[in-house]
Amino acid sequence: MHKCRVCSNNIEKFMSFGKMPIANAFLKKEEFKDEYFFELAPSFCNKCFTFQIIDQPDPNKMFHENYTFFTRSSKFMVKHFNLFANDIYDRFLKNLNQPMVIEIGSNDGAYLEFFSKKNISHLGIEPSANVAKVAKSYGVNSLVSFMNLETSKKILNKYRKADAITAANVICHIPNINEFAESISNILDDNGVFVFEEPYLGSMIEKNSYDQIYDEHVYIFSALSIQSIFSNFGMELFDLQHQSTHGGSMRYFLCKKGKKIINKSVDNILLKEKEQNLNKDDVFLKFKQNIEKSKIDLKNLLNQIKKNNKLVAGYAATSKSTTILNYCDIDEDLMPCIFDTTPTKINKYSPGKHIPIKDHKYFQEAKLDYAFLFAWNHYEEIKKKEQKFISKNGKWITHVPEIKVY
Ligand code: DWN
Ligand code: ZN
After folding, report:
1. Apex 225 CA angle, 56 and 166, nearest 5
2. What's this model's pTM, rounded to 2 decimal places?
3. At what angle do helices 223-231 and 264-275 cross, to 10 degrees?
4. E strands within 299-350?
5. Ligand 1 atom nearest to CA at 77
6. Which stretches of 41-180 are assigned E, i.e. beta strand?
7. Ligand 1 centroid to 73 CA: how many Å?
8. Which pLDDT band holds residue 68 (cuts at 50, 70, 90)?
9. How many whole angstroms separate alpha carbon 50 and alpha carbon 392?
10. With 90 as the cut, is the pLDDT of residue 1 above it?
């Protein structure tokens, strides 16, 4: 029996993915012997409706000066963040005198660059010093720190309260979400907005995209869970917007209670979530069965490809790939390498299964029959980029929503 991270209700894992390494800890050969593992086990709290993993490694093991994920690795995402920033500016900031914007988890500055270019006061809170350094080169100011009560005090000593606090794909990384919510409430102006987007529980269940579950994603949120977490800190949802990014995300708009007109989207989406049973345990038992089937189907397919003497490699060494490779027990024997564009991953080995990571520039000449698309969420962008692969009879494999070759 464990305690819910949000409401302390008793919770239990509904399945286990087994021992998992740190999803983004790509390593050198000499580091294999000291590799860290933990049990990846998801759970659902039927009191506050929060999907969460039971154990999470110490955040300092995941976010540090050698963090390997850079937001700018996807051109589509850079455009997406520019549009996001533009929307926030137009809707909430453009009529304010000297607005202040804070981003939580500002990474390499792909989002805050918009405000920096407009000379708007801004601050990124980012625990990984290496990505914050890249942000600096784009004129983005960062405070290298986790967001918690201590950081909120530091911010208030130096800056005024924020008119907009935003975040993308990062709130689900924060284990002490109650302390976090309190910190946000402290640094948010009474008329300010807190807007963030994250992979969405409803989409994960619908698409069986279980690879969204890994160490960094301590939660996968729904509107029901966000409402229950933030209402304890005097905040409420006033709008919700579905996003296509990361295979289906939700953008949550929060304000201090009573400060904004509540958009119809809030009731509509909360109702849909109840129809989808995102407030009940049963849905996760079915999810578990779908995950187990996906594993069997993928292993069968990869074994068949090997038997036929065909060549398959991974495309994009995503964080998500760590869950698939380790849970499905896929090693170099079934997948000889993974192609990726990130310099800090290239020529290293994948966490846990130690599959070599090769520079994407060799992808075309590798003469592959199949490529397993670990970055299935960027399919449109990748399809455009890799037309040659298809014209040479290469085939993509995906596991979302089910194992498919196309
Ligand atoms: O929440 C998170 C999201 C936003 O980003 C983090 N916890 C970590 C990360 O997750 P991810 O690694 O699964 O993200 P992506 O954006 O699905 O994949 C990024 C990886 O894919 C990078 O290693 C670069 C690679 N990639 C590639 O090799 N070729 C990506 C694209 C678009 C490509 O064309
Ligand atoms: Zn709970």
Report:
1. 80
2. 0.97
3. 120
4. 312-315, 338-340
5. 16
6. 42-44, 51-53, 100-104, 121-125, 142-143, 162-168
7. 7
8. confident
9. 46
10. no
